[in-house]
């Protein structure tokens, strides 16, 4: 039985030897598959930063987005096996190995250590003759100096996340009595943070990496160096949302920091017909104060959400929630 240290203390030579074994592997048409090697398991873990395995079942695994198909081809396994390993790692499968949960808990809680492990595995793969076509750098960390940044973390309140983890831990331990409270809570906190990262990534991509209120584009402002100039904001806040709502792209808007704060505090809202509405007091102030007008006049503030034709639009129920609990003004005062 493998131990967590075989993954956490993986060395370059060990990783290279494992890749050589993977290269010699033939696809298994039927029957039991060979056990996952540490390099495979760890890449499945890093893939969880991009892919939510819970979106797919046995009949839909073929629809899984990258890097799942690329890893499946490289490992000579079906997509379903890669997704199942991802489920083992986050503890959502009752038959998952305890050491895998421990590995996930430790690495997901330490992004820089996870990034270092990822780079080691890719370096070992290259030395074993596995090129970028077979194993793409799906986290973009092979570039010297590149770091792993989890998006949207500023939107999570530590106390809220830890309280939710403690509450969920009791239910998990009923299904997984082999796990310890400490490991379970640590993993659940990490899973929440990774979920927020995926949510933020999906929301920013959905809105074309530009503010839906004023149109400021992230790429026009300096690419990755300007990440903090664009925020993926929940319409219905994380704390008030159900678990599925926290990951729902329809519950998110991309905004520059100024309009993000205004939306979060109820100075600005979005009607169900996607018109942008400014609170009366702020609207009055914008008429007389040039500084406020520079952010909340029209322009730069658009009349309607700035979205593309293929954008997944915000959900009506989330917008109604924002009206009632954040903007706090009756809907009967304007046309819907």
How does this structure look, described?
The chain has 336 residues and is mainly alpha-helical. It folds into 2 domains: 5-127, no CATH class; 153-333, no CATH class. It is 47% helix and 4% strand. The protein contains 14 helices and 4 strands. The strands form 2 sheets. Strands 1-2 form a two-stranded antiparallel ribbon. A two-stranded antiparallel ribbon has the order 3-4. Helix 3 packs across helix 5 (79-89) and helix 4 crosses helix 5 (79-89).
In short:
With 336 residues, the chain is mainly alpha-helical. The protein is built from 14 helices and 4 strands.
Helix content: 40-55%
Kindly state the mean pLDDT as a whole number? 87
**What order do the helices and strands follow?**
HHHHHHHHHEHEHEEHHH
Strand count, sense and closure of the main sheet?
Answer: 2 strands, antiparallel
How many domain modules?
2
What Rg, in angstroms, do the CA atoms define?
A: 23 Å
Keywords:
336 residues, single chain, two-stranded antiparallel sheet
Please outline the helices and strands.
Elements: H1 5-8, H2 12-23, H3 38-47, H4 68-75, H5 79-89, H6 98-108, H7 111-127, H8 158-175, H9 181-206, E1 231-234, H10 243-246, E2 252-255, H11 257-264, E3 268-270, E4 276-278, H12 280-288, H13 290-296, H14 316-327
Antiparallel strand pairs: 1-2, 3-4
């Amino acid at each position: 039985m493998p131990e967590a240290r075989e993954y956490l203390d993986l060395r370059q030579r060990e990783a290279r030897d494992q890749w050589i074994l993977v290269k010699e592997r033939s696809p298994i048409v039927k029957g039991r598959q060979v056990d996952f090697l540490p390099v495979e398991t760890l890449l499945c873990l890093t893939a969880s930063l991009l892919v939510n395995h819970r979106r797919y079942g046995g009949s839909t695994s073929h629809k899984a987005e990258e890097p799942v198909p690329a890893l499946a081809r490289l490992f000579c396994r079906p997509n379903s096996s890669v997704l199942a390993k991802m489920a083992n790692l986050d503890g959502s499968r009752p038959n998952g190995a305890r050491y895998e949960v421990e590995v996930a808990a430790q690495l997901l809680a330490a992004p820089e250590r996870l990034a270092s492990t990822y780079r080691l595995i890719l370096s070992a793969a290259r030395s074993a003759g596995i090129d970028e076509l077979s194993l793409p750098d799906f986290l973009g960390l092979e570039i010297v100096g590149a770091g792993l940044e989890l998006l949207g973390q500023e939107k999570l309140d530590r106390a809220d996340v830890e309280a939710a983890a403690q509450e969920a831990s009791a239910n998990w331990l009923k299904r997984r009595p082999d796990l310890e409270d400490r490991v379970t809570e640590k993993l659940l906190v990490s899973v929440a943070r990774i979920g927020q990262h995926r949510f933020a990534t999906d929301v920013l991509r959905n809105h074309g990496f530009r503010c839906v209120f004023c149109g400021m584009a992230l790429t026009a402002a300096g690419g990755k160096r300007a990440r903090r100039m664009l925020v993926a904001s929940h319409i219905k806040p994380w704390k008030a949302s159900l678990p599925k709502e926290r990951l729902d792209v329809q519950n998110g808007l991309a905004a520059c920091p100024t309009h993000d704060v205004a939306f979060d505090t109820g100075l600005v809202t979005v009607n169900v017909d996607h018109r942008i509405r400014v609170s009366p007091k702020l609207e009055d102030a914008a008429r007389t104060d040039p500084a406020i007008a520079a952010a909340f006049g029209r322009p730069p503030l658009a009349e309607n959400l700035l979205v593309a034709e293929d954008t997944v639009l915000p959900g009506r129920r989330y917008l109604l929630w924002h009206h009632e609990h954040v903007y706090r003004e009756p809907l009967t005062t304007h046309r819907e």
